[in-house]
Write a structure and sequence with these properties.
The complex is a heterodimer of chains A (about 280) and B (about 350). Chain A is mostly helical and about 280 residues long. Chain A is built from 13 helices and no strands. In chain B, the strands form 4 sheets. In chain B, strands 6-7-8-3-9-10 form a 6-stranded mixed sheet, sandwiched between helices. Classes of the chains: A mainly alpha (about 280), B alpha+beta (about 350).
Chain lengths: ~280, ~350
């Protein structure tokens, strides 16, 4: 066998898998979105479905809402997970127990998380009942216009995931670097801003990205906890494809969501490429 | 520059007593080496002075000011780590300027001081580099510059040369010594390498199992150690169990020396290999079991009636006696007795 054949054979399992299960569906979805799909009724090449996403206020609001319910939970998760990851490096009583407990949401399916939020925070839910004797009332958190319930449920799912990834990068920072900051006159906060944050940045951006992409296409949580209107694109996609048999519009929305994810990826690579701050570059 | 006073320090890690009853008075401008095997607590002592570790009990004072209980940033110490602990995402310059930034030194003065210290460690050319672009020796010098630029009261060095190769180690050893003399800064140097301690320190503190075994000047400690641990840890030695009675010293192989006016009874002698000379003689009490050529020295391993001893000779005149040669042993005139 010549080198080229060997190379192709070696690449085949990995690249073949990607082409078959990722590239091909993406191409099919794209073809469908421009009216060349096999499913549903197609009438030849058209950009009509994309136009409708931007002109039809229902879909336009849907796209904006989709981005909103990705960005907001990601930011909320980040604000909580980052200090948590840093604090988990310290030792405190009950740390082992806490480290086990905080990971539980990782293994709880999103739909279960949505029901937990519903039973707790809905009007007439557990917390409302507990607050009733004190004549206190929760704000509307389920099916509310700001999608607070959606944000709570998604953040609840994402925080442990983010903490785990960021915690890994923070733990990889040699302790001596933190000690060095202290002996040079910096305090604990200096250690965070000048050492932990910049050196853990690759992990932080990776975690942020993964959570963002994961929440972009979320279906169960917004459909249970989200407001009646607007709905995210994921829900409109379901409606178009399976209720109206309009696969072309569903595909166009899917491509739009993928583009948003790709955009975030590009930004991620732009941030991380100029930043070879990884600990690996350091000699011991 | 300041006097460092440690009083009765204790530190326990779970079941092990890392530092036990440790007291030390380091004079202003003195260079003290803490010497001991790994795990003897020397690094823990240093970390307690820096404030990275807190003693369970005891007092630490730097320049007459109690610092135990203060966090590291309020102690004004300079610490050079074994790993150097340079900030990988900052340039050499930024690493060195860090401590000055923390002290809110004005920009102009900061630039002046960074330049001066870079000059001092001979790294002016590399100011804009990142640590990963430097060799181990250069990184070590950056670490030293970073620790010195803030003009700390005391300089702490934790095995600063142990990650470097032998040649560079000797070179940097001299640099550190010269720098310390020039600045007159109180320095505590932690090492497990006896030659570093001997070459650098005004005073060596030998430690084992969290305690001070013995302390003294390098020469006194090497030539007249009181404790067996010191004798064996500082260089090589032969420990001979001898007995003295009626003015005669009896060696284990049957030899004796009259006119002994030291202590009587059973005693341990410590004799350095370089103080023993050997001579081929067919009826001698000892036999050569191994010969090692070490460049400057020749070491003969001897069997003296079941006891293993080492003798060293140096210089070009030193003879090599082949394995199996029977020999006589000559011990030095003044024999050192361990207590």
């Amino acid at each position: 066998m010549n080198r080229l054949t060997v190379l192709v054979l070696l690449l085949l399992p990995g690249v073949g898998f990607l082409i078959l299960f990722f590239g091909l569906p993406l191409v099919l979805a794209f073809l469908a979105s421009v009216g060349l799909g096999a499913l549903g009724n197609s009438h030849g090449f058209t950009l009509e479905h994309y136009r409708s996403i931007f002109t039809d206020s229902v879909y336009r609001d849907g796209l904006v809402f989709s981005i909103y319910i990705s960005v907001a939970p990601t930011l909320v998760s980040l604000v909580i997970a980052l200090p948590l990851a840093v604090l988990l490096q310290e030792s405190f009583p009950g740390k082992r127990l806490f480290q086990t407990l905080y990971k539980i949401p990782l293994v709880v399916p999103a739909i279960v998380a949505a029901f937990i939020v519903m039973t707790l925070f809905d009007r007439g839910g557990e917390i409302s009942r507990l607050l009733q004797p004190f004549h206190l009332q929760l704000p509307k958190l389920v099916r509310d216009p700001w999608a607070l319930g959606v944000i709570i449920a998604m953040a609840w799912k994402s925080i442990p995931f983010m903490t785990l990834i960021i915690g890994g990068s923070v733990a990889a920072i040699p302790h001596d670097l933190k000690h060095a900051v202290r002996t040079l006159g910096g305090n604990r906060l200096t250690v965070f801003w000048r050492i932990e944050l910049p050196l853990a940045l690759p992990g932080i951006t990776a975690a942020t990205l993964l959570v963002f992409v994961g929440t972009t296409g979320a279906f169960a949580v917004p459909s249970l906890l989200g407001p009646i209107y607007p709905k995210p694109l994921s829900l409109w996609m379901y409606q178009s494809a399976l209720e109206k048999n309009d696969w072309a519009t569903a595909s166009a929305m899917g491509i739009m969501l993928s583009l948003v994810a790709c955009l975030v990826l590009v930004v991620y690579y732009r941030i991380t490429s100029g930043m070879r701050t990884g600990i690996s570059g350091e000699t011991r | 520059m300041a006097r460092v006073l440690l009083v009765d320090l204790h530190k326990r890690f779970n079941a092990t007593l890392a530092v036990d009853n440790f007291s030390l008075d380091v004079a202003e401008g003195e260079f003290v080496a803490l010497l001991g095997p790994s795990g003897c607590g020397k690094t823990t002592v240093m970390r307690m002075i820096a404030g990275i570790a807190e003693p369970d009990s005891g007092e630490i004072a730097i320049g007459g000011r109690r610092v135990d209980g203060l966090s590291p940033e309020h102690r004004n110490v300079g610490l050079v780590f074994q790993s150097y602990a340079l900030f990988p995402h900052m340039t050499v310059e930024a690493n060195i300027a860090f401590g000055l930034q923390m002290r809110r030194v004005p920009r102009d003065e900061m630039r002046r001081r960074v330049t001066a210290v870079l000059d001092m460690v001979d790294l002016s050319q590399l100011a804009k580099r990142h640590p990963r672009q430097l060799s181990g020796g250069q990184q070590q010098r950056v670490a030293l510059a970073r620790a010195l630029v803030t003009e700390p009261d005391v300089l702490l060095l934790d095995e600063p040369l142990s990650n470097l190769d032998a040649k560079l180690r000797e070179h940097l050893r001299e640099d550190i010594r010269n720098l310390q003399r020039r600045l007159g800064i109180t320095t505590i140097y932690v090492t497990h390498d006896q030659s570093e301690a001997l070459a650098l320190a005004d005073r060596i503190v030998v430690m084992n199992s969290g305690r001070i075994v013995e302390e003294g000047g390098p020469r006194d400690l090497y030539q007249t150690p009181r404790r067996r641990f010191t004798a064996e840890f500082l260089g090589q030695t032969n420990i001979l169990a001898a007995t003295a009675s009626d003015g005669t010293l009896h060696f284990p192989w049957g030899g004796e020396r009259s006119g002994w006016n030291g202590q009587h009874g059973r005693l341990d002698l410590s004799i350095r290999p370089e103080d023993i000379s050997i001579e081929a003689e067919a009826t001698g009490p000892a036999v050569v079991t191994d010969v090692t050529f070490l460049g400057a020295d020749i070491e003969h391993k001897l069997d003296v009636g079941g006891l293993t001893m080492r003798a060293r000779a140096s210089g070009r005149g030193a003879k090599i006696l082949p394995v199996g040669t029977r020999i006589t042993i000559s011990l030095p005139g003044d024999l050192h007795v361990l207590s």
